[in-house]
Amino acid sequence: MIGPAMSTFAKTRWHSERLGCESTLARWGHYGQPVLVFPTAGGDAEEIERFLMIKVLDPLISAGRVKVYSCDSVAGRTMFDKSASPHERMRMMNQYHQYVKHEVVPAVRKDCDDEGIGLWAAGASIGAFHAAAMVCRFPDIFHKAMAMSGTYNLLRFIGAKEPSPEFFVSSPIHFVPTLAGMHLDLLRTRELRIASGEGKWEDISESWNLANILGRKGIPNYVDNWGPEWHHDWVTWREMLPKQLDAWTKPAA
Questions:
Q1: Is the pTM here over 0.85, yes or no?
Q2: Any idea what the CATH number is for the domain that residue 201 is in?
């Protein structure tokens, strides 16, 4: 049976020169705050529907409180591709973020019929890295991030001891300490919610490390510790994201 959210599903594909491949942008909803949800490491734009995230978000989508988008995790797939050099994996991270800024965001804004609308970012695991990076890199575009069960120090997966210049500007734990001026001033008006369990395959120290880096620069953030019964799994993320989006979009009393 097709639910309300799926009845408003649409997707578009185009060739991205920045990524060097075909890319997909999926959308669920007809109206509301646009939320760009990044997939896990090897996921595609429709991963969140297959893993029932859209089902649990349906009340918010159907009420017109959020309009959910997702794009392929091209950088995530490249990062774990052992046949690619560390340099290429770091380069692709920046290319992916530029693809989001210059290709995905204009497509979302066109779909919303609002060239200046601010977006929210969300994601779990590697998707949490991208969600946090979007707000920190582009606070003029992304206003909030819901980063769930995130891993923020990616160099150990890439196999590099030091970040390349392209990776440095993509990684919040590296570039945020260097921010100043108007960029930092604007970022201090944004919000990052950093949620994590402490169960199987979780490492909440990653969340605390990012939070401490943000806090030292006066950037609003909050670590939401869900405790040891919550694992690094879709069951956890299906609980986390609807609750946070509900809180952020709840009508004023």
A1: yes
A2: 3.40.50.1820
